[in-house]
Design goal:
This protein is an all-alpha fold and 312 residues long. It has one domain. The chain has 14 helices and two strands. Strands 1-2 form a two-stranded antiparallel ribbon. Strand 1 and strand 2 form a beta hairpin.
């Protein structure tokens, strides 16, 4: 196979991966008609853990992977972060629009970079802080979507509506909290990436997250079964399309393409999710959500854009 054809195929797989992960929010919304947010998170991670464990079981090279006690504890912490990520982000989809929730949870790379100097001893440039500032401004615009709007007389705010939209603020915070938890999961993954093979690492972290979410469901007394066939189909589709297909293709892209290209391509996820929300949920974002989302994506773009060829 020629090099140009191989590159083209890698881009095709990357695009398919982005489209696959973009379906997550829509599938969650459909499942939410019968299933609670916590149970959805538990089902998603349980299916993912079963798949990861099966891959590890049939993997010959990495079946006998060894880890120190400290590394095992870090993987358990990573699983906790991942469980909290899904629980908080999926709950946020009950309270805010798909576009706002996905835009905020997509800010994960910013928080990873912000903590990298402390956790990974990696340098962060001034360009990153400019991008972070833009993302914060975009987040503020989305946060005040309930109280502010563009109208005939221009931009105006009615702060009395802020209290009425308290559930919206909670939803936005949960989406942002989901991004923070995902950044903890990614930082630990980067820290252990050179020490623990990917297959056992994924299996252990996913299993930890699944067990924690299953325990939370049991302790809360949530309904785990008795749903309609349609609800189960949405839960299975969630595990297969965005998780198994989407994340697998993104991992494939990371092994065959520059990380910066994949990182920038991930900015397409909130755009894809928003388009799907418009088509299937009839959920059109407001003008302020669109402006705030564009500013956030611009901030992430500025923050992660490579500064020099050798750095990329």
């Amino acid at each position: 196979m020629s090099n140009s054809r191989r590159v083209s195929q890698n881009y095709i797989w990357l695009v398919i991966g982005i489209l696959a992960v973009s379906t997550a929010a829509i599938l969650i919304r459909f499942a939410m008609e019968e299933v609670s947010a916590l149970v959805i998170a538990a089902y998603r991670m349980t299916f993912a853990a079963i798949l990861a464990l099966a891959i590890w079981l049939f993997s010959k090279r990495e079946k006998n992977a060894r880890a120190t006690t400290g590394e095992v504890l870090l993987m358990a912490l990573s699983g906790l972060f991942l469980a909290l990520h899904f629980a908080s982000w999926i709950t946020s989809l009950q309270l805010v629009s798909v576009s706002s929730s996905v835009i905020l949870v997509t800010t994960t790379p910013l928080w990873v970079a912000l903590l990298s100097p402390v956790v990974l001893k990696e340098h962060v440039s001034a360009q990153f802080y400019l991008g972070l500032a833009l993302a914060v401004i975009g987040g503020v615009l989305i946060a005040f979507n309930e109280a502010c709007a563009f109208g005939v007389g221009g931009f105006s705010c009615n702060l009395a509506r802020v209290t009425a939209g308290s559930n919206k603020f909670l939803g936005l915070f949960l989406a942002l909290f989901g991004a923070w938890m995902a950044s903890g999961y990614m930082l630990i993954g980067r820290k252990l990436g050179s020490k623990i093979p990917t297959i056992p690492y994924t299996a252990i972290v996913y299993t930890t997250a699944a067990l924690l979410l299953d325990l939370a469901v049991v302790l809360k007394g949530e309904k785990l079964a008795g749903f309609s066939t349609e609800a189960y189909l949405f839960l299975v589709a969630m595990a297969v399309v965005p998780q198994a297909i989407g994340h697998t293709l993104l991992n494939h892209s990371l092994h065959n393409m520059p990380a910066t290209v994949v990182s920038l391509a991930l900015l397409g996820e909130p755009i894809g999710s928003t388009i799907l929300a418009i088509l299937f949920l009839k959920e059109t974002p407001s003008a302020l959500e669109v402006v705030g989302g564009v500013v956030i994506l611009l901030g992430i773009l500025v923050a992660v854009w490579p500064r020099r060829t050798n750095e990329a």
